[in-house]
Structure formats: structure tokens, C-alpha cells
Amino acid sequence: MAPTTSASVLTGKEESRNDQELKPDTRAETYSQLHVETVSGINLTAAAFVAGAASSTAAGLVLSGLSWPWLISLVITVGIVLVTFIVYRHFEMIRRRQKPGGSWLIPSNTPQPNAAGTQVPNTTSLPAIYFTYILGSGGHTAEMIETIKQSFRGQANIHRRYIISIGDTSSLAKARLLEATIKDAYPGEDARAGTSDIFLIRRARKVHQPLYTAPFTCLISAFHAANALTRMPNPRSTEDHGKGFRYPHVIVTNGPANGFIVCFVAHLLKIFYLVPENRAKMVYIETWARSKTMSLTGKLFLKTGIADVVGVQHESLARIFKGSQYIGPVSAGFLQR
């Protein structure tokens, strides 16, 4: 069994780079495992939509002889059945998650001990560990990178996927810098660096974008998110690893940009049985800057219940917002740098 490695390995390595200009790391680009891809379409979801469109067309041809009242009644009935199915599956998934033993971590509004000093579970014996991190921009990305470093343990069976908005060059540079730091900590053929890739997807809504166009860009972003969530990592072929890396085990986000859209798509994929229910577990971490109230994204995660864990970094928030869990200042370390 490969030994676990302290996250301080990454912290020490990166301190020597603090004064460098943050730009795409040219060495990181040469690493074969750091695959960067701009998503421009869909695969699994596209197949589902094509099948649905074909079925609808066929049904329309068969039912074309029916009168308009019959057709309208049929459409309404199908719509009611579909909505009922989605609502039932949503609450059934939440119910199973909250059953004793049904979740790997059940959210609670009771403040918990500081999680920053706890030991990360040893997962080196598992066949596959697949994390998806959604990077926002600016301080949110800095917090997410710090969270990854604090929880990082070197092991060969791990894959990291970063989902970044197209045009967010700052987050892209930080992800590359982090991967370069990991590679420096485990040089050469040391497999404990794991593997990684980056997917660039359409931003759900740009700054100052008119609200009436937001639904269209959100829909495009959702299609791209479905692609990023269902694509097998290139370095983890099915021949060598089976289906262990077919879907992410955990999705981690701290809110901005496409965080909620990606998680909502993951939830829908599980509702329609396109992704196994025990995959794509969602963890939302409220930014450290929020100490008195939660962000709109955080409130959406709480109200919808799609996240398995809604973590806050201040005890006051855990007391105010039922359903959130105090996890300690897991991402505040970047303020000390």
C-alpha cells in the first residue's frame, strides 16, 4: 500500500513560487496527463436527446390522425407524468441519502469541530478515486486551490478534473500551477502524482450580460457540463481501469460561475439513471468571506437539496442556516501567503 503524503509537501513547494507571475506554466503543458480540452458538444446527453427527439417524431407521425383536443391532452398527460417522475426521484434520492448508513456524510446545522486539522481518510486501497473541481474566478479559485492542497494525499489511483469557464485564464493558470507543483513533489515516474485534466466549458452568464439571454447561455453551459461529467479521463482507459473512472465520485464547488449549473446537471443525470446514484456526490463549500449570510448559490444548494454536503467556514452561518455544516476554515490558508 502506498503511503499517504502530507499536504505540506505541496505547501512548501508552492511557497518558492509565490513571487512569480501567475501565468500558464509551460512545464505543466508538457505533462501528458494534463489534458486541456474546450468542450463544444455533448456525448451521452446528446444521445439521450436524439433518442427522445426520434421517439417524439415517431409518436407524432402515429398520432397525427388524432384531433387537436386529443393531442393537447396527450401532451399535458406526458408532461404531468414527467414532472411527477422528476419530483419523486428528487425527493427519493434525498431520502435515501439521509437514511442511517445511506450517506458518507450527512449535513447538519450543528457546529462541528474544525475539519482543517483532521486526517484525510486513507483511500490508497480503492481501485479509483475521481474528483471534479469547479473553479470560479479570483478569490474563489484561490480558495479552491487551497482546499485541494490542504486535503491532498499523493496516491496513484486518483484523478483530478478541473472544470473552468472559457476565457477564465486566471483559473486555468492556477490549475496548471497546482499540477506543476504536484508533479514537482512526485517527480519522474512516481505514480503518486495521480492524473489530471482540464475541461473548459461555456460560462453560464457573463458579467453585464442581459438577463433575457441568460437562459440560452445557461442551457449551452448545461450541455457542456454534461459532456465534462460523462467523459472518461484520457489517462484512465477502460482497458486498464474498467469503469472505475467512468463518472466522478465527488464534485467540489465553492459557488461562482458554473458551480450550480454543473451540479444541477449532475443531479438530473442521476434522476434519469444516466449516472449511478452513488457517483457524482456534490460538496458545496461556502466562501470564507461569507460570515454573516450565505451567497445566492449557497442558498440555492440549501433550498434545492441537490448537494450532499453544504459546508460553511464560520460557526455563525451553521447556526443560522439549517442544513449547512460547519467544516472549519478549510480554504482560509491562502490569506496567510
UniProtKB/TrEMBL annotation:
GO terms for biological process: dolichol-linked oligosaccharide biosynthetic process. InterPro entries: Oligosacch_biosynth_Alg14. Keywords: Endoplasmic reticulum, Membrane, Transmembrane, Transmembrane helix. Its main location: endoplasmic reticulum. Residues 12-27 have a biased composition (Basic and acidic residues). One of its GO terms (cellular component) is nuclear membrane. GO terms for molecular function: N-acetylglucosaminyldiphosphodolichol N-acetylglucosaminyltransferase activity. Residues 1-27 are annotated as: Disordered. The keyword Transmembrane helix applies. It is a single-pass membrane protein. It comes from the Eukaryota. PANTHER family: GLYCOSYL TRANSFERASE-RELATED, UDP-N-ACETYLGLUCOSAMINE TRANSFERASE SUBUNIT ALG14 HOMOLOG. Belongs to the ALG14 family. Heterodimer with ALG13 to form a functional enzyme. This is UDP-N-acetylglucosamine transferase subunit ALG14.
